Amino acid sequence: MTIGRIAPETETPLLEVENLKKHFPIRKGLFSRVVGQVYAVDGISFSVAPNETLGIVGESGCGKSTAGKAILNLIKPTDGEVKLEGKRIDNLSGAKMRSVRKQLQVVFQDPYSSLNPRLRVGEIVGEPILNFDSRNRHAREERVIELLERVGLPADAAKKYPYEFSGGQRQRIGIARALALDPKMIVCDEPVSALDVSVQAQVVNLLMDLQQDLKLSYLFVAHDLAVVEHISHRVAVMYLGKIVELSDKHSLFSDPLHPYTEALLSAVPQPSPRRKPDRIVLKGDVPSPINPPKGCRFHTRCPYAFDRCYVEEPPLREVEPGRQVACHLHDDAEGTKGPSLPS
Amino acid sequence: MVATIESAEEDAVGQQGHDESALLEVEGLSTYFFTRDGVVRAVDDVSFSVAAGETVAVVGESGCGKSVTSLSIMGLLQTPPARIVSGHIKLQGRDLLTLPESEMRKVRGNEISMIFQEPMTSLNPVLTIGRQIGETLVLHEGLSEKEAESRAVELLRLVNIPEAERRVREYPHQLSGGMRQRVMIAMALACQPKLLVADEPTTALDVTIQAQILELMSDLKQKTGSAIIFITHDLGVVAEMAERVVVMYAGKKVEEAPVVDLFERPRHPYTAGLLDSVLKLGSSSGERGKRRLNEIPGTVPSLKDEIVGCPFAPRCSYATDYCRTDAPVLEEKAPEHFAACFHSDQLAEQEN
Ligand SMILES: Nc1ncnc2c1ncn2[C@@H]1O[C@H](COP(=O)(O)OP(=O)(O)OP(=O)(O)O)[C@@H](O)[C@H]1O
Ligand SMILES: Nc1ncnc2c1ncn2[C@@H]1O[C@H](COP(=O)(O)OP(=O)(O)OP(=O)(O)O)[C@@H](O)[C@H]1O
Ligand code: SF4
Ligand code: SF4
Ligand SMILES: [Mg+2]
Ligand SMILES: [Mg+2]
């Protein structure tokens, strides 16, 4: 299926993800019998062009981090393909994967558990260099200091341990580390969630500067929609393991097509104490990725759900150039094709 | 959603209905870390109070001492290296700093509870979610294990965790980041505290769940009269939840004001810079990359060095020579509006 891609055909995408799935088995009892599956990521396809930022947003637990980890080959995908510069990486392991990892770095959501508490910051940031690069010690130390300063930490931070830093400061250490090997692509899993707004602005500016200077691509997972809007070129909205909308950011934020996207945008708290929030409050139970609802996965909470939504799953389809959505409300755009088959 | 909170209604009225004065008073709190290479003045002479039923937000740059302030209130600092070198923390007039640990443990379970910033490190990885929530309930409310488990399921439902019955038997690593955070929230709400200290409680949550959690906290506040200390860097959340805001910088309180005053007439340049850095949805509609976000240039000073003059001076566009030698003290610049800045008036003029 090529629906997942909307990058210009002329350009070879840096990253291609095809029908990626990650299911976690649920085990029970004495013999750890598998009694079910968590459909954490359930068939997603997209691509990221060189120098592009693809934002990913979606409800907590919808599979964003799992998708990131599967792409990075930190966990084995259940199905699907991941290609970097046209070459499959999802089936690599050991040394081969290590050399790919140089190009594909990650900044994690949790700045607390992602740094080794026994290493000094200088060692943490310099570790990837040590593994891949034969620079001498002096050059390495200089590089570490340069990296620390780029992320807004003082040079003497190199001699300290992670516990001596606050949450936000630790996240900057993680970003410095990810930059150490001049990667082509960084998967950023909530890289600025733990930062206060002024530092967040610094880091967002920094990430964008780095992108320009180094032609980096980002897969940028975040809850802060204003940040996603600012930093991304295109945005994918996930719900229960699937992509429900994927568009260039202007269309997505000014004219969301999927009812879930619409609800998400309306829930953003406004930084002005006199304005009363005007929200679409999602009613109904949050469904589970173990028994995803039949038909459209969003129907249990969708204010527009109609009979067809309960039985037929809407496929993600292109409804305008560069805009994909998975919702029966946007079927007419398909013209005369009539009702589509459940996928 | 309402069911579990309702049960607390009676004792809320009984215990707190009469009390008009401050529920919590933090007076001159200084908490330092004594490390091998120096003393870190993480919290330096900070005072504020929280009335019953009030929500006070604490904001400030990463590393300015927000979490250390809340851990000081909870009595959960690791000593050494941390030590509270001066000050009082009074809960309904009783100084918590003089209580023995055994008493403090009761206070923590029953009267104050905390939602920690780092859900992964504050949840025990080898205990199921149900056990962790249940433990508090067995300890403080004398429930049997069976009762505790069914109450844990109820609490998970309250924070909108799907399939609560199954999730209580799972371990922290099997949950997503946002679910772990909600487990922490469920634990904190378990004992219907008088004071809830929430350290970045919604940072890991998406906005729809965040909206539900904020509503839940407002509900709790209304039904039980709980006060909330809300630490967050999301100024949208501050605007929505708080009645009063305390702004910290480099271990000190630099501004305090009712929420509307603070947003509309900040009196400290750091606060003004913070408000300028806020990114609003829809504000990036121009071509991407054309506009840089406003940031406050520079970094916070090291808390290990003696700070001479105003700690914000190296980054402040209003700074004068005076600011670099003398430390401004907190003054009431307008009714109920305090700031520690020599040139507040200049800022106020500019804002107009
Ligand atoms: N190791 C695991 N074992 C079993 N289930 C898992 C595991 N890791 C994740 N899951 C489940 O997969 C689903 C997706 O989790 P994931 O961490 O990807 O969500 P997320 O979108 O990143 O959420 P958040 O915004 O809260 O970080 C969740 O239901 C989660 O419980
Ligand atoms: N164990 C420790 N040893 C030495 N210094 C510490 C220790 N814990 C915290 N600090 C220091 O105390 C200061 C205050 O930290 P705190 O965690 O309170 O910041 P914060 O305001 O909560 O920041 P954030 O917004 O990033 O969570 C920081 O400068 C930090 O480096
Ligand atoms: S397909 Fe139906 S239930 Fe699903 S989002 Fe569209 S209208 Fe709502
Ligand atoms: S006292 Fe001076 S340096 Fe400090 S915030 Fe005010 S103007 Fe800026
Ligand atoms: Mg995640
Ligand atoms: Mg903190």
Characterization of this structure:
The complex is a heterodimer of chains A (343) and B (352). With 343 residues, chain A is α/β, with parallel strands linked by helices. Chain A folds into 2 domains: 15-103 and 183-334, 3-Layer(aba) Sandwich (Rossmann fold), CATH 3.40.50; 104-182, no CATH class. In chain A, 29% of the residues lie in helices and 23% in strands. In chain A, the strands form 2 sheets. An 8-stranded mixed beta sheet of chain A has the order 6-7-8-3-9-10-12-11, with helices on both faces. A 4-stranded antiparallel beta sheet of chain A has the order 2-1-4-5. The longest helix of chain A is centred in the middle third of the chain and has 18 residues, at 197-214. Helices cover 38% and strands 23% of the residues of chain B. Chain B contains 15 helices and 12 strands. In chain B, 53% of the residues are buried. The interface between A and B is large, with 71 and 69 residues. Bound molecules: adenosine-5'-triphosphate (2 copies), iron/sulfur cluster (SF4) (2 copies) and magnesium ion (2 copies). One magnesium ion binds next to helix 1 of chain A. Residues 258-259, 296, 298-299, 302, 304-305, 309, 314, 327-329 of chain A line the site of one iron/sulfur cluster.
